[in-house]
Amino acid sequence: MISEMNKGVLFRWENASKVVTAAENIYGLEILIIYIDNRINNHYEYHPSG
């Protein structure tokens, strides 16, 4: 499973357990679930005019 979260968003086990349960209901218990989180951070600013 892959997700994208904005800067400052907290993803706690209470939320994760709901996602894992939903995935188990769809795919069954035989499949290993791997979770990848892609954080969206703005570490730079782009100024096209220089």
Identify the notable features of this structure and list them briefly.
1 helix; 50 residues; two-stranded parallel ribbon; alpha+beta
Structure summarized in a few sentences:
This protein has 50 residues and is an alpha+beta fold.
Characterize the structure shown.
- The chain is an alpha+beta fold and 50 residues long.
- It has a domain at 1-34.
- It is built from one helix and two strands.
- The chain has one helix spanning 13-27; strands at residues 2-6, 36-40.
- The protein has a two-stranded parallel sheet.
- β1, α1 and β2 form a beta-alpha-beta unit.
- The relative contact order is 0.32.
- The model has no long low-confidence stretch (mean pLDDT 79).
- Count, helices: 1
Percent range of helical residues: 25-40%
Total strand segments: 2
Poorly predicted parts: none
The structural class is alpha+beta
Largest sheet: 2 strands, parallel
Distance between the termini: 39 Å
Q: β content, as a range? A: 15-25%
Q: Which sequence of SSEs, written as H and E, runs from N to C?
A: EHE
Q: Biggest sheet, strands in spatial order? A: 1-2
Mean pLDDT: 79
General form:
elongated
Using only C-alpha atoms, the radius of gyration works out to 16 Å
